[in-house]
């Protein structure tokens, strides 16, 4: 698996949800093949930022370029480049399905072959029982299975929301190790978490929203080039 990952450049971006502005005045740059963690407490806009960076949530202002595609005009192309493995609660595997059913469905939808699924499972270091219900898998294996199904089609980037949910410390370590293996293919991995791991990750830390919900400057990273 050898993938050309997405590069992202954002200047002054902001997005709005049903309850108001979720992030604003945000600058960032992501290099291809990076493991990125959008970090912050629940309600800080982590999921919204993942959706915006992948062309799935419209911006209300700012400049956003994903591998040469400028949003919102080229949002459809960006959605093809960056695929969601898990975005809670709208994109998760069905617990009532069996592993073999989920594989068959993904092969039908994405056109991937069995050996590509096998290579993806090996990449994240799992070998789930094909007869098991997805809901019966360990939470770490369930998440990595969702990642494997997504990377089998070799997108340029993936989304993995709420990485730590329901995981013990050892299980978190297993999942982060699997995601690092994915980045070694060149794929860009965009995640969200409350407590990002140490080491070779790029952290975008979001503050708690202000009580009056006014737009606030949520990130001021050094070394961001002009578009």
Automatic annotation (TrEMBL):
Molecular function GO terms recorded: ATP binding; ATP hydrolysis activity; transmembrane transporter activity
Domain named ABC transporter: residues: 24-162
Signal sequence, start to end: none
Region ranges (Disordered): 206-227
Compositional bias of kind Basic and acidic residues: 210-227
Gene Ontology CC terms, in alphabetical order: plasma membrane
Protein name (Swiss-Prot/TrEMBL): ABC-type multidrug transport system ATPase subunit
Organism of this sequence: Saccharopolyspora phatthalungensis
């Amino acid at each position: 698996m050898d993938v050309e990952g997405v590069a992202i450049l954002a200047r002054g971006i902001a997005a709005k949800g049903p309850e108001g502005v979720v992030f604003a005045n945000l600058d960032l740059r992501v290099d291809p093949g990076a493991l990125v963690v959008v970090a912050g407490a629940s309600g800080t806009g982590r999921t919204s930022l993942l959706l915006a960076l992948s062309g799935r949530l419209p911006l209300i202002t700012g400049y956003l370029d994903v591998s040469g595609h400028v949003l919102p005009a080229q949002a459809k192309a960006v959605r093809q480049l960056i695929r969601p493995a898990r975005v809670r609660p709208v994109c998760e595997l069905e617990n009532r399905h069996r592993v073999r059913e989920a594989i068959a469905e993904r092969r039908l939808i994405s056109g991937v072959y069995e050996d590509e699924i096998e290579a993806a499972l090996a990449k994240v270091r799992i070998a789930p029982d094909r007869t098991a219900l997805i809901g019966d898998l360990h939470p770490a294996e369930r998440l990595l299975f969702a990642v494997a199904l997504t990377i089998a089609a070799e997108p340029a980037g993936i989304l993995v929301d709420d990485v730590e949910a329901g995981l013990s410390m050892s299980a978190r370590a297993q999942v982060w190790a699997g995601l690092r293996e994915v980045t070694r293919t060149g794929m860009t991995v965009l995640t969200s978490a409350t407590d990002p791991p140490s080491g070779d990750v790029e952290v975008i830390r979001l503050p708690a929203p202000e009580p009056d919900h006014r737009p606030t400057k949520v990130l001021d990273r050094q070394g961001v080039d002009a578009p």
